[in-house]
Amino acid sequence: MQIFGIRKSADTRKALRFFSERRVKTHFVDLMERPASLGELRRFAQKFGVMLLVDKDSKRFAELGLRYAQLSDDRWLEKLSQEPLILRIPLVRNANQLAIGADESTWKDWIDR
Q: 2-112: which CATH number, 3.40.30.10, 3.40.630.30, 3.40.50.300, 1.10.260.40?
């Protein structure tokens, strides 16, 4: 189980706590210390679409003035890699299965299998 997030984020802490309570070994990547690679972000974008990765309600999104930005998918992925505070986090990967945000029902399904 790999969790990409920011340590200060409540949803990231929720994901870490969820898996630790169920004794599932996780690998946590703090996006403030090590940004997500473009390849990793592409994996999530292929499944969910680039715009579902963008947290349009985040403070940083507004600060950067991206509300009316017209960017290509590749440019959005570059921006998300450079600015982890505009990502909808946590990004959780279980082998080839992916989840965005605090999606406990999906996480439970993974553990039950």
A: 3.40.30.10
Bond preceding residue 35 cis, omega within 30 of 0: no
pLDDT in tens, 37-69: 999 999 999 999 999 999 999 999 999 999 999
Compute the half-sphere exposure of residue 39: CA atoms within 13 Å on the CB side of its CA: 0
Who contacts 92 (Cβ-Cβ below 8 Å, separation ≥6)?
A: 1, 2, 3, 4, 15, 98, 99, 100, 103, 107
Within 10 Å of residue 41's Cβ, how many Cβ atoms?
21
Please give the DSSP secondary-structure letter assigned to residue 103.
Answer: -
Write down the domain spans for the chain.
2-112
What is the greatest pairwise CA distance in the chain?
43
Q: Which residues have CB under 8 Å from 103's CB, separation 6+? A: 92
Q: Over pLDDT 70: what percentage of the chain? A: 100
